[in-house]
Amino acid sequence: MKILVTGGAGFIGSNYIRYVLAKYPDIKVVNLDLLTYAGRMENIRDFIHDSRYKFIKGDIRDRKKVQQVMKEDFDAVINFAAETHVDRSILEADSFITTDVYGTYTLLENAKNCNVEKFVQISTDEVYGSTDKRSFKEIDSLQPSSPYSASKAAGDLIALAFYKTYDLPITVTRSSNNFGPYQHLEKLIPKMIARALQDKRLPVYGDGRQVRDWLYVMDNCEAIDTALWKGKPGEIYNIASGNEYQNIQIVKFILQTLKKPESLISFVPDRPGHDRRYSLDTSKIRNLGWRPEHVLKDALRETVEWYIRNKWWWRSLQADKFFQSDTSWLKRKHL
Ligand code: NAD
Ligand code: DAU
């Protein structure tokens, strides 16, 4: 079994490669990653010398490169590669459009000419937009709010069009917010942990009552693997744990775990176009036999401990402006 993983030097992709190398003794994995600010050799250093693993630096928007990589016969392609941070997309959407839309198309176009048995497009719950009360099903319409989620929606729909038009065996996963080891400090949970450890203010956007459904990254890896081998071509699978919490509750839990005072919390102007609540109906992936294994509070505590033990991993990321600032300037700049 030989798989091509794109974006495997990022947060979820690197965890996924670690997961499959441990699970399948006879697997071969090729990782195609551009190593943007989010893709880091530090994420893959524990398996870089594994003889079953190969790293290729390259851009999914580069047609020639993708064509050359896909000359090797792959049983499956899993496309994690993307620009992923909503705040960055508000500031500058260009790379989101080129990577998340055109890059996805480039992979699909090349996969069409190969004997790929499965192509998993990693999408997101953000494509549905916000919901007050109900949970989205896979058949619901897409109403993305940010340049990030709109680019992901475009990539997601192009992938499904390649199934309908060319019979390319596409499966799409749409997951909720992941957390766990190796997540960049730009994202809520690592940012709050690293800032609290240094007694820095914790910038909570708006009233902090936005709801996200938090999924431990290893549970997502297992769900993606389930969708890959048991999912049907042409189908979409929502993935979430059902752990819906307001941001402020998550931030307070981190502070409690670290024994730091709530006075560190600072409410700052809201993110423009901020979705209030994401919520998914996950019965379809559960019907394939998947269940989340991790209890949120335990996994969150373990994640906090991972960041305490692995300061070497995140020390250099502190220079990033999305970690440094409260990003209230995003709003001022764009209104
Ligand atoms: P990440 O930002 O940590 O990693 C993205 C990876 O893609 C990096 O290694 C980066 O170098 C690589 N990349 C970016 N542009 C590239 C290009 N043009 N060519 C090749 N490689 C490129 O992202 P993540 O959080 O691990 O997310 C992975 C996927 O999962 C994304 O598609 C994202 O939209 C989706 N997703 C993420 C979450 C989440 O909570 N993190 C939830 C749902 C879906
Ligand atoms: O829902 C899945 C999505 O989850 C993925 O598709 C995205 O790639 C991933 O980045 C994530 O998007 P969010 O915007 O939900 O994640 P983020 O960690 O940026 O923010 C989580 C919530 O916390 C959101 O409501 C905004 C808020 N927030 C975030 C930051 C960085 C704050 O209040 N303060 C902050 O400093």
Question: Could you characterize what this model shows?
Answer:
- It contains 13 helices and 13 strands.
- The termini are far apart.
- Strand 1, helix 1 and strand 2 form a beta-alpha-beta unit.
- The protein has two domains: 202 residues, Rossmann fold (3-Layer(aba) Sandwich); 100 residues, UDP-galactose 4-epimerase, domain 1.
- The mean pLDDT is 96.
- It is an alpha/beta fold and 335 residues long.
- 40% of the residues lie in helices and 17% in strands.
- Strands 3-2-1-4-5-6-11 form a seven-stranded parallel sheet, with helices on both faces. A two-stranded parallel ribbon has the order 7-10. It has a two-stranded parallel sheet with strand order 8-13.
- It binds nicotinamide-adenine-dinucleotide and 2'deoxy-thymidine-5'-diphospho-alpha-D-glucose.
Summarize the structure.
The protein has 335 residues and is α/β, with parallel strands linked by helices.
Task: Compile the SSE list and pairings.
Elements: E1 2-6, H1 11-23, E2 28-33, E3 53-57, H2 63-69, E4 76-79, H3 86-91, H4 94-112, E5 118-124, H5 147-166, E6 170-175, E7 178-179, H6 188-197, E8 202-205, E9 211-213, E10 215-216, H7 217-230, E11 235-239, E12 244-246, H8 247-258, E13 265-268, H9 283-286, H10 296-309, H11 311-314, H12 321-324, H13 328-334
Helix content: 40-55%
Helix count, DSSP H or I runs of 4 or more residues:
13
The structure class reads alpha/beta
Q: Distance between termini?
A: 51 Å
| Poorly predicted runs of 5 or more residues | none
Q: Would you identify the CATH H-level superfamily of the largest domain?
A: NAD(P)-binding Rossmann-like Domain
CATH class of the largest domain: Alpha Beta
- Write out the strand line-up for the largest beta sheet, numbering strands in chain order: 3-2-1-4-5-6-11
**Mean pLDDT over the full residue set:** 96
Global morphology: globular
**Rg, Å, rounded:** 19 Å
CATH architecture of the largest domain: 3-Layer(aba) Sandwich
Major sheet details: 7 strands, parallel
Bound molecules: nicotinamide-adenine-dinucleotide, 2'deoxy-thymidine-5'-diphospho-alpha-D-glucose
Q: What count of domains describes the coordinates?
A: 2
Helix-strand pattern: EHEEHEHHEHEEHEEEHEEHEHHHHH
Q: What is CATH's topology name of the largest domain?
A: Rossmann fold
For the secondary structure, the number of strands is: 13
